[in-house]
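ESCALATION

Customer reports they have been waiting on this structure for their group meeting. Please prioritize. Original submission:
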Amino acid sequence: MTVGRTARTGETCPESGVWKVVGAHSTTAPIAKGNRMPPYGGNAVTWQLIQLA
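Update from on-call: job pushed to the front of the queue and completed.
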């Protein structure tokens, strides 16, 4: 997997690392491979991998 990859809320996380919400109100979260990508602010969002674990 590569940094820059994206995944949507509800998808299975493809790679352990630090993920960031794409958009104006972004946040970061450590998410482990195999976990479900979470919502942010109660909304489905796109997450982008910014750092491998």
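Sent to customer with the following note: The chain has one domain: 1-25+39-53.
Escalation resolved.
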